[in-house]
Amino acid sequence: MDIESLYLFTEVMHQRNFASIAKARGVAPSSVSRSISALESEIGTRLFQRTTRQIVPTEAGLLYYERINSVLEELELAQQLASDINNQPSGTLRITASKVFGEMYIVPLLAEFSQLYPELSLEIQFNDGYTDLVEERIDIAIRAGSLKDSSYIAKRLLPMSFYISASPEYLSKNGRPESPQQIKEYNCLLFPRSGHNLNWLFKQTQKIQEISVQGKHLLTQSSAIKQCTLAGMGLSLLPDWLIQPELEKGQLIKLFSDYEVTATDYSGAVWLLYPSREYLPSKVRLFNDFLMKHFS
């Protein structure tokens, strides 16, 4: 039995879409379909019900996945153990990263890491949603915010603070708010994402005020909020790592420096997460150490 067809089967189980898998692999969707059909013929049972609109696993497909997934994990672990003996990391390092942070801070480091470990392939997913690291076979996740799943091993990569800022042009036209209560009178650029309060929290000397903010514009991407802030469309609450360059250049002005401000809680950071396993492959340790060195 071809091991690659088993990996392909698990991808179909996760994505339920031949076209997206084919695009990622650089092959035709018909090639993916033929491989799955060949696997079904070899096993002697149908694993998926296909229609023109969807792909749904059969009961046999679900049972097969439960067994095969753990077998593939053990196979990868065995391969990694053998590779680690020679201290030459190889195979594929699967990473998921928050989209904006990943594009700004992780992507520029990939060339250097690849030069250090040329036998190691990288597979990177950029998304801000929840990812089951075990089910998706992710080796390491880079997440910005508060920890939500304590079942993962976590290490803080970077502390994170939130700043309220505005462009000089906006403040020149509308004036500068002097107290948290006055912020209700300003147009605020809102971030309606899960885990983010539409009210902003202001902490000073351990006292927290929750202020209801108003705004005409809701955006679900922090980088888009930054662009709108630079364009003078209102006040925003964004992480320091995202707007620090603009603050240093004077393109944005930080407000309420005497307060700690957030829309979530005060435990936010950029985290490295990896599944809780008895053995941590060297490829994960090396990437972990590489990032910690760069962000220390």
Short description:
InterPro entries: LysR-type_TF_proteobact-type, LysR_HTH_N, LysR_subst-bd, WH-like_DNA-bd_sf, WH_DNA-bd_sf. By secondary structure, the protein is of the alpha+beta class.
Tell me what the structure shows:
With 296 residues, the chain is of the alpha+beta class. Among the domains are: 1-86, Winged helix-like DNA-binding domain superfamily/Winged helix DNA-binding domain (Arc Repressor Mutant, subunit A), CATH 1.10.10; 162-262, 3-Layer(aba) Sandwich (D-Maltodextrin-Binding Protein, domain 2), CATH 3.40.190. Helix content is 41%, strand content 22%. The protein contains nine helices and 13 strands. The strands form four sheets. Strands 4-3-5-13-6 form a five-stranded mixed beta sheet, with helices on one face. The chain has a three-stranded antiparallel beta sheet with strand order 10-7-11. Strands 9-8-12 form a three-stranded antiparallel beta sheet, with no helix packed on it.
